[in-house]
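Supplementary Methods, section 5.1.

A reviewer requested that the exact input to the structure prediction be made available. We therefore reproduce it here, unchanged from the version used in the analyses.
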Amino acid sequence: MATIKRSDAAEGLLELQGRKFSLDVTPWFRDIYNTGRWSMDTEPVKRKVLVKSSRQVGKTVMVGNVSTLMLLGHDNFNSGVIMPTDKQISLFSRQTIKPLFKNTEVISEFYIDKETTDNIKHKTLNNDSAMILGNAYLSAESLRGISLNFLCFDEIASLLRENVRIIEESMNFRPHKYVLYTGTPVTDDDAMGQLWRESTQTEYFYKCPHCGYWQWLAEGNIGENFIQCGHCHKEMIPHECQGEWVDAHPDREVEGFHISALMTVGTIATFDTIYSKYKNYPRGLFYNEVLGLAYRSGYRPISLDGIMKVCNSNRTFIREGDDDFHERVNQIRRNYVTFAGIDWAMKERDTAKKKGSVSYSLITISIYDEFNQKIIPVFARRYYEGKLASDPDLQLQDMLKWIDLFNVSVVGADYGVGHKEVVRIKKEIGSDRVFECMYTPNASSDVVYHPEQQYFSVLRNHAMEMIIDDINGGNIEFPRYDGHMSEYAGDLTAIYQVNDMVMRRTRYDHSDPDDFMHTLVYSKLAAMYYYQQLEYGMASV
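The structure derived from this sequence is encoded token-by-token as follows.
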């Protein structure tokens, strides 16, 4: 297997729908199958491939084939496929992987026996290799602790970028670290858009048989009766034209390919179907679904102007080393009830220059106006420099120092990434002073308490909208902007709204770190819990 091309192995071994698999109608996939990025000769940070595509181009079959070929080509090898929902995983498992394993003779005869496993989310072969399927819409918790060699994120535009990073850490102790990102783009700012900007931005160029002009197919190639050359406007039949992949940025860490439905005209799609969609689809939907392009950035609910309107120019964050530091801290302790919000985030770094973990963790301490349900942040610290940026123990000790100094009544923190550290905080200050919560995409109530695990599940959209409404409605007070709030404003303006076609709901994502937003959410929820203003249901035990 290792001595032949993956495309040849796919076409020579795999069987779909009762016949040998073929790439004849999608020849541009061959170079993706055969990419040199998935090689031990490639430096680890460059073993990443992105396929940005429209619908109905054969992408899902490619995901199944490549994931399977990885298992056949290696012993003791784990392939993982991550999608946004359990429903998508179930369909992929039943409609793509199960028939592929069953109909491919080499797999059914030589790799499957009585000892192998055939579950929806877990399939094994007798060479000690396995395929693990999982969903990660808002949380990556269910995928923690699984060690993977090859990892595919499908419909990545519907996944949060930080969850992608968390799951990628499952490859830290495996030698291969091969990654595939796939899906249909939505906006420039979702996970797909961010990855595309970081990629080689490789397009498939066709040579016009009439004038010799090279071009990749886009909206300007849609004529009234056929796919036309963008230069001479004569008919081009894509599968009959000479073509090749061309990198815009060859040296980037992610190798990114773009596939549009226009490339399939005459093989998978008809021109009439494409033209009908061009005339009848909303423009954004046509860009996403047919051209395989992001249409525009999502609506950003928090503006810099809106942030500056709620900044108090006469107040600053309390900072250690200021002349009035002790006086201001003592004033807070004497006169106010305080609440903390902690957002834990660590990312593994493995480059030629630096290795180890990088921190995005943040603590915010606020006072709370009980009558107006208004939080007023007085202290914030981001752990991104020096030893504190790479040592969770030192971070925890520092956070406990500030919690004690400000006499914090309740600490709000996330149940996910930092749960281990939150357990330690509970041991130091008491579990009754910790409000631990986990975001969820849907539930019967906005907030639900889980008594066995001692955490609250919180509707992510509604929790974030609480702070968004506070900022836009003036029901929050930040300190002076210059030199103080300016450090954290980007965490708020990075948030944008996405109309998620896969999940059929609106959600919030972010183009840059948004940790400060979540510390505000946790602080306010902790305060509302303390003052018995928080309504919540109880999970069944």
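The two ends are 50 Å apart (CA to CA). These observations are discussed further in the main text.
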